[in-house]
Design a protein that fits this description.
With 280 residues, the protein is of the alpha+beta class. 19% of the residues lie in helices and 36% in strands. It has five helices and eleven strands. Strands 1, 2, 3, 4, 5, 6, 7, 8, 9, 10 and 11 form an eleven-stranded antiparallel β-sheet that branches. It is globular.
Protein backbone atom coordinates (compact mmCIF):
# COMPACT_ATOMS: atom_id res chain seq x y z
CA UNK A 1 0.00 0.00 0.00
CA UNK A 2 1.46 3.33 -1.09
CA UNK A 3 1.93 5.99 1.59
CA UNK A 4 0.32 9.38 1.29
CA UNK A 5 -2.95 10.82 0.04
CA UNK A 6 -4.31 9.46 -3.27
CA UNK A 7 -4.17 12.49 -5.55
CA UNK A 8 -4.21 11.37 -9.17
CA UNK A 9 -5.64 8.52 -11.23
CA UNK A 10 -5.24 8.69 -15.00
CA UNK A 11 -3.97 7.05 -18.20
CA UNK A 12 -1.05 7.62 -20.59
CA UNK A 13 -2.35 8.80 -23.98
CA UNK A 14 -0.55 8.84 -27.32
CA UNK A 15 -0.23 12.63 -27.11
CA UNK A 16 1.84 12.21 -23.92
CA UNK A 17 4.50 10.08 -25.60
CA UNK A 18 7.64 10.99 -27.54
CA UNK A 19 9.72 9.29 -30.23
CA UNK A 20 11.25 6.99 -27.63
CA UNK A 21 7.81 5.46 -27.18
CA UNK A 22 7.15 6.45 -23.57
CA UNK A 23 5.61 9.35 -21.65
CA UNK A 24 7.66 12.50 -22.07
CA UNK A 25 9.17 14.13 -18.98
CA UNK A 26 6.90 17.18 -19.23
CA UNK A 27 3.84 15.04 -18.54
CA UNK A 28 5.35 13.64 -15.34
CA UNK A 29 5.62 17.24 -14.16
CA UNK A 30 2.07 17.93 -15.38
CA UNK A 31 0.92 14.96 -13.30
CA UNK A 32 2.84 16.29 -10.30
CA UNK A 33 1.28 19.72 -10.72
CA UNK A 34 -2.21 18.21 -10.78
CA UNK A 35 -1.36 16.11 -7.72
CA UNK A 36 -0.22 19.25 -5.90
CA UNK A 37 -3.51 21.01 -6.63
CA UNK A 38 -5.50 17.93 -5.57
CA UNK A 39 -3.52 17.65 -2.32
CA UNK A 40 -4.21 21.32 -1.58
CA UNK A 41 -7.90 20.88 -2.43
CA UNK A 42 -8.10 17.96 0.03
CA UNK A 43 -6.99 20.36 2.78
CA UNK A 44 -9.63 22.92 1.80
CA UNK A 45 -7.50 25.14 -0.47
CA UNK A 46 -8.73 26.00 -3.97
CA UNK A 47 -6.28 28.79 -4.79
CA UNK A 48 -3.62 28.31 -7.52
CA UNK A 49 -0.40 26.73 -6.29
CA UNK A 50 2.95 27.98 -7.60
CA UNK A 51 5.76 25.42 -7.72
CA UNK A 52 9.24 26.88 -7.46
CA UNK A 53 11.13 23.62 -8.02
CA UNK A 54 10.57 20.02 -9.11
CA UNK A 55 13.08 17.23 -8.56
CA UNK A 56 12.24 14.06 -10.49
CA UNK A 57 13.66 10.55 -10.38
CA UNK A 58 12.54 8.19 -13.14
CA UNK A 59 12.35 4.48 -12.36
CA UNK A 60 10.28 2.70 -15.02
CA UNK A 61 8.70 3.71 -18.28
CA UNK A 62 5.07 4.65 -18.62
CA UNK A 63 3.84 3.83 -22.12
CA UNK A 64 0.65 4.33 -24.13
CA UNK A 65 -2.33 2.82 -22.36
CA UNK A 66 -0.62 2.46 -18.98
CA UNK A 67 -2.80 3.48 -16.06
CA UNK A 68 -1.10 5.23 -13.17
CA UNK A 69 -1.82 6.86 -9.85
CA UNK A 70 -0.10 9.33 -7.57
CA UNK A 71 0.09 9.37 -3.78
CA UNK A 72 1.22 12.62 -2.18
CA UNK A 73 2.68 13.49 1.21
CA UNK A 74 4.13 16.66 2.72
CA UNK A 75 7.79 16.11 3.62
CA UNK A 76 9.14 19.55 4.56
CA UNK A 77 8.11 23.11 5.39
CA UNK A 78 10.11 26.34 5.09
CA UNK A 79 9.46 30.06 4.83
CA UNK A 80 8.12 29.66 1.28
CA UNK A 81 5.72 26.80 1.92
CA UNK A 82 5.36 23.04 1.86
CA UNK A 83 7.52 20.56 -0.01
CA UNK A 84 5.44 17.70 -1.37
CA UNK A 85 6.50 14.25 -2.52
CA UNK A 86 4.49 12.57 -5.29
CA UNK A 87 4.95 8.86 -6.01
CA UNK A 88 3.69 7.86 -9.47
CA UNK A 89 2.85 4.16 -9.66
CA UNK A 90 1.91 2.01 -12.65
CA UNK A 91 -1.38 0.63 -11.41
CA UNK A 92 -1.27 -2.27 -13.83
CA UNK A 93 2.05 -3.61 -12.55
CA UNK A 94 2.21 -2.03 -9.10
CA UNK A 95 5.72 -0.75 -9.91
CA UNK A 96 7.02 2.71 -9.03
CA UNK A 97 7.36 4.79 -12.21
CA UNK A 98 8.73 8.05 -10.81
CA UNK A 99 8.99 10.30 -7.80
CA UNK A 100 8.60 14.08 -7.83
CA UNK A 101 9.59 16.35 -4.97
CA UNK A 102 7.88 19.70 -5.43
CA UNK A 103 8.68 22.86 -3.51
CA UNK A 104 5.62 25.09 -3.36
CA UNK A 105 4.38 28.46 -2.19
CA UNK A 106 1.46 26.81 -0.43
CA UNK A 107 1.22 26.06 3.27
CA UNK A 108 -1.28 24.87 5.83
CA UNK A 109 -0.11 24.50 9.41
CA UNK A 110 -2.56 21.67 9.96
CA UNK A 111 -0.75 19.46 7.43
CA UNK A 112 1.51 16.95 9.19
CA UNK A 113 4.95 16.17 7.79
CA UNK A 114 6.17 12.73 6.76
CA UNK A 115 9.73 11.54 6.14
CA UNK A 116 10.98 11.85 2.56
CA UNK A 117 11.11 8.30 1.11
CA UNK A 118 14.60 7.08 0.20
CA UNK A 119 13.59 6.47 -3.40
CA UNK A 120 12.63 10.15 -3.77
CA UNK A 121 15.88 11.51 -2.29
CA UNK A 122 18.41 13.14 -4.65
CA UNK A 123 20.98 10.80 -6.12
CA UNK A 124 23.01 12.44 -8.89
CA UNK A 125 21.14 15.77 -9.08
CA UNK A 126 21.11 17.88 -5.92
CA UNK A 127 17.87 18.94 -4.22
CA UNK A 128 18.85 22.62 -4.42
CA UNK A 129 20.51 24.38 -7.31
CA UNK A 130 24.10 25.54 -7.08
CA UNK A 131 24.15 26.87 -10.64
CA UNK A 132 25.50 30.39 -11.14
CA UNK A 133 23.28 33.32 -12.05
CA UNK A 134 24.12 35.48 -15.07
CA UNK A 135 22.34 37.36 -17.83
CA UNK A 136 21.91 36.49 -21.49
CA UNK A 137 24.43 39.13 -22.59
CA UNK A 138 27.18 37.86 -20.26
CA UNK A 139 30.34 36.04 -21.40
CA UNK A 140 29.19 33.00 -19.41
CA UNK A 141 26.03 32.76 -21.54
CA UNK A 142 28.03 33.18 -24.75
CA UNK A 143 29.91 29.95 -23.95
CA UNK A 144 26.73 27.88 -23.72
CA UNK A 145 25.01 25.86 -26.46
CA UNK A 146 21.73 27.42 -27.72
CA UNK A 147 19.00 24.76 -27.70
CA UNK A 148 15.65 26.58 -27.76
CA UNK A 149 14.00 29.86 -28.76
CA UNK A 150 10.28 30.51 -28.57
CA UNK A 151 7.39 32.24 -26.87
CA UNK A 152 5.18 31.65 -23.85
CA UNK A 153 1.63 31.20 -25.18
CA UNK A 154 -1.60 31.94 -23.28
CA UNK A 155 -2.75 28.32 -23.36
CA UNK A 156 0.45 27.33 -21.53
CA UNK A 157 -0.43 29.48 -18.53
CA UNK A 158 -2.58 28.82 -15.47
CA UNK A 159 -5.46 30.95 -14.19
CA UNK A 160 -3.00 33.40 -12.58
CA UNK A 161 -1.30 34.03 -15.93
CA UNK A 162 1.89 32.18 -14.97
CA UNK A 163 3.38 29.58 -17.31
CA UNK A 164 2.67 26.12 -15.94
CA UNK A 165 5.60 24.08 -14.67
CA UNK A 166 5.01 21.52 -17.44
CA UNK A 167 6.00 24.08 -20.04
CA UNK A 168 9.12 25.10 -18.17
CA UNK A 169 10.50 21.58 -18.35
CA UNK A 170 9.18 21.09 -21.89
CA UNK A 171 11.55 23.83 -23.14
CA UNK A 172 14.46 21.75 -21.86
CA UNK A 173 13.16 18.45 -23.25
CA UNK A 174 12.18 20.00 -26.60
CA UNK A 175 15.62 21.56 -26.88
CA UNK A 176 17.48 18.38 -25.96
CA UNK A 177 17.61 17.16 -29.56
CA UNK A 178 19.45 20.35 -30.55
CA UNK A 179 21.91 19.78 -27.73
CA UNK A 180 22.61 16.20 -28.77
CA UNK A 181 22.94 17.30 -32.42
CA UNK A 182 25.42 20.01 -31.45
CA UNK A 183 27.73 17.47 -29.80
CA UNK A 184 27.64 15.07 -32.75
CA UNK A 185 24.67 12.78 -32.06
CA UNK A 186 22.50 12.87 -35.19
CA UNK A 187 18.91 12.21 -34.10
CA UNK A 188 17.89 10.35 -37.28
CA UNK A 189 20.98 8.15 -37.13
CA UNK A 190 20.30 7.37 -33.47
CA UNK A 191 16.72 6.35 -34.17
CA UNK A 192 17.78 4.25 -37.16
CA UNK A 193 20.21 2.45 -34.84
CA UNK A 194 17.27 2.03 -32.41
CA UNK A 195 18.88 4.16 -29.75
CA UNK A 196 17.61 7.22 -27.94
CA UNK A 197 18.44 9.47 -25.00
CA UNK A 198 16.48 9.32 -21.75
CA UNK A 199 16.64 11.20 -18.46
CA UNK A 200 17.21 9.34 -15.19
CA UNK A 201 16.96 12.31 -12.84
CA UNK A 202 16.19 16.00 -13.26
CA UNK A 203 15.51 19.20 -11.35
CA UNK A 204 13.87 22.37 -12.68
CA UNK A 205 13.76 25.72 -10.88
CA UNK A 206 11.50 28.70 -11.50
CA UNK A 207 13.43 31.88 -10.70
CA UNK A 208 11.05 34.60 -11.90
CA UNK A 209 7.53 35.08 -13.29
CA UNK A 210 6.88 33.71 -16.79
CA UNK A 211 3.76 35.07 -18.45
CA UNK A 212 2.15 34.89 -21.89
CA UNK A 213 4.13 36.86 -24.45
CA UNK A 214 7.50 36.32 -22.78
CA UNK A 215 10.15 35.49 -25.39
CA UNK A 216 12.40 32.65 -24.23
CA UNK A 217 15.95 31.55 -24.96
CA UNK A 218 17.44 28.40 -23.47
CA UNK A 219 21.16 27.66 -23.46
CA UNK A 220 22.82 24.56 -22.05
CA UNK A 221 26.09 22.84 -21.24
CA UNK A 222 27.42 19.35 -20.70
CA UNK A 223 29.02 19.61 -17.30
CA UNK A 224 30.14 16.07 -16.54
CA UNK A 225 30.25 12.47 -17.70
CA UNK A 226 30.34 9.59 -15.23
CA UNK A 227 30.17 6.10 -16.71
CA UNK A 228 26.99 5.87 -18.77
CA UNK A 229 25.59 9.16 -17.45
CA UNK A 230 25.90 12.63 -18.97
CA UNK A 231 25.07 15.62 -16.77
CA UNK A 232 23.54 18.72 -18.34
CA UNK A 233 22.82 22.23 -17.05
CA UNK A 234 20.09 24.36 -18.63
CA UNK A 235 19.61 28.12 -18.39
CA UNK A 236 16.37 29.85 -19.47
CA UNK A 237 16.42 33.57 -20.20
CA UNK A 238 13.84 36.24 -20.92
CA UNK A 239 15.04 37.16 -24.40
CA UNK A 240 13.75 40.73 -24.08
CA UNK A 241 15.31 41.66 -20.74
CA UNK A 242 18.15 39.12 -20.74
CA UNK A 243 17.25 38.03 -17.20
CA UNK A 244 17.77 34.46 -16.06
CA UNK A 245 14.27 33.18 -15.20
CA UNK A 246 14.68 29.40 -14.94
CA UNK A 247 17.30 26.68 -14.67
CA UNK A 248 17.49 22.92 -14.84
CA UNK A 249 19.89 20.05 -14.36
CA UNK A 250 19.59 16.57 -15.83
CA UNK A 251 21.33 13.21 -15.79
CA UNK A 252 20.80 11.40 -19.10
CA UNK A 253 21.80 8.09 -20.67
CA UNK A 254 21.58 6.32 -24.02
CA UNK A 255 18.71 3.85 -24.31
CA UNK A 256 18.33 0.71 -26.45
CA UNK A 257 14.85 1.02 -27.95
CA UNK A 258 14.53 -2.72 -28.56
CA UNK A 259 15.91 -4.08 -25.27
CA UNK A 260 14.43 -1.10 -23.35
CA UNK A 261 17.56 -0.70 -21.24
CA UNK A 262 20.48 1.72 -20.92
CA UNK A 263 23.64 1.24 -22.99
CA UNK A 264 27.19 2.55 -22.80
CA UNK A 265 28.68 5.21 -25.05
CA UNK A 266 31.18 4.04 -27.63
CA UNK A 267 34.72 5.41 -27.64
CA UNK A 268 33.82 7.45 -30.73
CA UNK A 269 30.79 8.95 -29.01
CA UNK A 270 32.80 9.87 -25.93
CA UNK A 271 35.39 11.52 -28.17
CA UNK A 272 32.61 13.52 -29.87
CA UNK A 273 31.13 15.09 -26.75
CA UNK A 274 34.24 15.39 -24.56
CA UNK A 275 35.36 18.72 -26.15
CA UNK A 276 32.00 20.20 -25.19
CA UNK A 277 32.24 19.47 -21.48
CA UNK A 278 32.53 22.74 -19.57
CA UNK A 279 32.36 24.07 -16.05
CA UNK A 280 29.48 26.49 -15.39
Amino acid sequence: MASGLPTLQTTVNTTHCDEIGHMNVQFYVAAGSDATRLFAAATGHREPIIATSDHIRFYRELRVGDIFTSHTQAVARDEDGLTLCHRLTNRGTGELAATLVTRTRFDDETVALDVLPDDAAPRSITARSALPSFSLDSPAADRLIPIYQGMVHPEQCDETGQMRQQFLISRFSDGAAHLWHHVGFDRDAMLKARRGAVVLEMRVDRLAPMTAGTPLVVKSAIVNVAGKVLHFAHFMFDAASGALIGTGEAAAVLFDLEARKTVSYSDEEIAAFTPHIMKV
